[in-house]
Specification:
alpha/beta; 8-stranded mixed sheet; globular; Rossmann fold; 250 residues; 10 strands; 31% helix
Length: 250
């Protein structure tokens, strides 16, 4: 059996589906608790071309939620540590790193080489920027968020689904400041993100769009809220009607 026999034996993937996985080009934004778990998932599945954007260095506080790093990694750039892991674990992957802070001046040269974006940035400012860039470049993007024992996910297909900024009440658990979180939370969110990416690659299944999926591990709750669409207000980023989780009063 070859390395990917378990993947190929999945009924809706097979040899043809696996060729799509090998040819897929996925850009991951952020090498934190969610991003590193998503990298493990995609590299294990054999996604052939993966890019990683991050300019942080490993700190001691990262080790409890970012399992690709260890104490010897402290002080090193995350992208360098992750690249070493990928090259040892699966040297057949075309893995590129971008040690920089993504902005409106440098995104085009990076985004052009990828078909799917996986957002694992964890601040409101960065998420809004990424949403704007994904809409501009018409790239499908899977947003994630985590906070303590809660997580959430939303897939955006520009031109077909609402974008992140369409939501008046933010469903994703994106931080405004330093926050607590567990490795388990990041792993669950990354698993959902990886599944969304796989569905886009294979062009199968139903993506988690329009209604974000949120979970609370402490309460054992998984929900997709009922949404309400404005008849008068439009999103400034994509032009679609704004969305709320409560009725609009115009």
């Amino acid at each position: 059996m070859d390395r990917y026999s378990k993947i190929k034996s999945i009924g809706y993937i097979g040899e043809e589906g696996f060729k799509k996985i090998q040819n897929a080009r996925v850009l991951i934004l952020g090498a934190g608790g969610i991003g590193t778990n998503t990298i493990v998932n995609l590299v294990s599945m054999g996604v052939g071309h993966i890019g990683l954007v991050d300019n942080d260095v490993v700190e001691m506080k990262n080790l409890s939620i970012q399992t690709l790093y260890n104490e010897e990694s402290i002080g090193r750039y995350k992208v360098d540590v992750v690249k070493e892991w990928v090259e040892k674990y699966n040297p057949h992957i075309d893995f590129k790193t971008y040690n920089l802070r993504l902005d409106e001046n440098n995104y085009e040269d990076i985004f052009k080489d990828y078909d799917i974006i996986a957002n694992a940035f964890d601040t409101q400012k960065s998420v809004h920027l990424v949403n704007k860039l994904a809409v501009k470049t018409n790239k499908p993007i899977v947003f994630t968020g985590s906070h303590e024992l809660e997580g959430s996910i939303l897939t955006v297909i520009p031109g077909k689904t609402p974008c992140f900024d369409c939501y008046i009440e933010r469903q994703l658990k994106v931080a405004e400041k330093e926050y607590g979180v567990t490795q388990a939370t990041g792993a669950i969110v990354a698993g959902l993100q990886s599944a969304e990416i796989l569905k886009i690659i294979l062009d199968m299944g139903i993506a988690i769009h329009t209604n974000p999926l949120a979970f609370n591990m402490l309460l054992g709750l998984i929900e997709r809220p009922r949404i309400y669409t404005s008849k008068t207000r439009k999103c400034e980023v994509c032009g679609r009607p704004l969305i709320s989780y409560a009725p609009f009063y115009n």
